[in-house]
């Protein structure tokens, strides 16, 4: 998001487990719904892990490039998939009353080339709420 407004979720400490939990706002729920929609619309992708932070999201998107599939249907590039996610979620968030919601222009991506790299990125995504709690408590 451009203005880094913390409108997508809230991260709280669970009193029972002492673990951070992510509580989605209605805007975060829209993004979660659109992540699922993306996987339904484009059957050649999967999103195995994600986290919706208060002012940004992290996720892994797997694009399955089967030569047999590619010969019959177009496999959209990552930029088009991200555009679909951003435009549809923005539209629904605006409908919910957050008219000034905007995504940052670009996105950061890595091509995962090994199982080891995949595991490190999954760990990073899952640790994000912990890191947020650590830095939030320090401020």
Q: Give the helix/strand class.
A: alpha+beta
Shape verdict: globular
> What is the CATH class name?
Alpha Beta
Number of helices, counting only DSSP H or I runs of 4 residues or more: 4
CATH architecture heading: 2-Layer Sandwich
Uncertain segments are none
Please report the distance between the alpha carbons of the first and last residues: 21 Å
CATH topology value: Alpha-Beta Plaits
| DSSP strand tally | 4
The total tally of domains equals: 1
Order of helices and strands: EEHEEHHH
- What portion of residues belong to β-strands? 15-25%
Radius of gyration: 16 Å
| Fraction of residues in H or I helices | 40-55%
Strand order in the sheet with the most strands: 1-2
Please state the average pLDDT score: 89
Question: What does the model show?
Answer:
The protein has helices at residues 26-41, 67-72, 78-95, 115-138, and strands at 9-13, 20-24, 45-52, 57-63. The chain is α+β, with helices and mostly antiparallel strands and 139 residues long. A hairpin with a 4-residue loop joins strand 3 (45-52) and strand 4. It contains four helices and four strands. It is globular, with a radius of gyration of 16 Å. It has one domain (9-138): Alpha-Beta Plaits (2-Layer Sandwich). The mean pLDDT is 89. Helix 1 runs antiparallel to helix 3 (78-95). The strands form two sheets. Strands 1-2 form a two-stranded antiparallel ribbon.
How are the elements arranged and paired?
Blueprint: E1 9-13, E2 20-24, H1 26-41, E3 45-52, E4 57-63, H2 67-72, H3 78-95, H4 115-138
Antiparallel strand pairs: 1-2, 3-4
Helix pairs in contact: 1-3
């Amino acid at each position: 998001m451009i203005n880094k407004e913390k409108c997508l979720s809230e991260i709280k400490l669970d009193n029972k487990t002492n673990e951070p939990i992510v509580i989605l706002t209605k805007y975060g729920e829209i993004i979660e719904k659109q992540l699922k929609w993306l996987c339904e619309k484009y059957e050649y992708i999967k999103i195995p892990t994600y986290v919706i932070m208060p002012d940004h999201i992290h996720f892994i998107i797997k694009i399955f490039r089967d030569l047999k599939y590619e010969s019959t249907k177009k496999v959209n590039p990552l930029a088009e998939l991200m555009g679909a996610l951003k435009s549809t979620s923005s539209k629904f968030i605006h409908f919910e009353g957050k008219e000034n919601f905007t995504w940052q222009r670009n996105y950061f991506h890595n091509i995962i080339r090994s199982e080891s790299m995949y595991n490190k990125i999954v760990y990073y995504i899952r640790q994000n709420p912990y890191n947020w709690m650590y830095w939030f408590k320090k401020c």
